[in-house]
Design goal:
With 80 residues, the protein is an alpha+beta fold. Helices cover 40% and strands 20% of the residues. It has helices at residues 35-51, 63-69, 72-79; strands at residues 2-7, 13-18, 24-27. The protein is globular.
């Protein structure tokens, strides 16, 4: 996996994580004023992966049942 660092249209530094197959797995979500701060955020993330166990949680709902329970599925079907 590879972290990519770039400067966006607002001149903020951001990162994203790409898999070996090319899929984007994660993004910084926030911009950083300095490239060094962006890289430091990546380094903190890498360190936490080494230090902490990564927990995997499986939700007990399917996307469609979740939408139906929120009343979203009926409105999506009605719009067709």
């Amino acid at each position: 996996m590879v972290f990519h660092v770039y400067q966006d249209v607002r001149n903020e530094w951001r990162w994203y994580l790409r898999s070996p197959a090319g899929a984007q797995l994660a993004t910084s979500g926030a911009g950083y004023a300095r490239r060094a701060d962006c890289v430091a955020a990546i380094q903190r993330l890498q360190a936490s992966f080494r230090r902490d166990a990564i927990e995997i949680v499986t939700d007990n709902i399917t996307p469609l049942s979740h939408m139906a329970s929120a009343g979203l599925f009926a409105s999506a079907v009605a719009r067709g």
